[in-house]
Amino acid sequence: MINTFPNFEDELTRWDKYWAMYSAGICEFTGTKKAEKAATNAQVQKLFKETIERRDDGCYVRLSYKDHHPPLPDNERIALRRLQGVIKS
Q: So which domain of life are we looking at (predicted)?
């Protein structure tokens, strides 16, 4: 006979790992919108100050991107229809 029930501690550890991975990256801001915007602006300003490079041809700063942002859709269909409209006229 095979025991199909895993050790309780192992099962508990697996569930802890699952919930830790499931909730990773979920950071809800609990303050007001104004406070959230101020915090975001402070993060962006900090990134700019940390990544600014002075070169002979000017200054370079790394752009800030939103974390965990869904990819933007492309506009290929719209551009194709506009091109077809321009060609027809």
A: Eukaryota
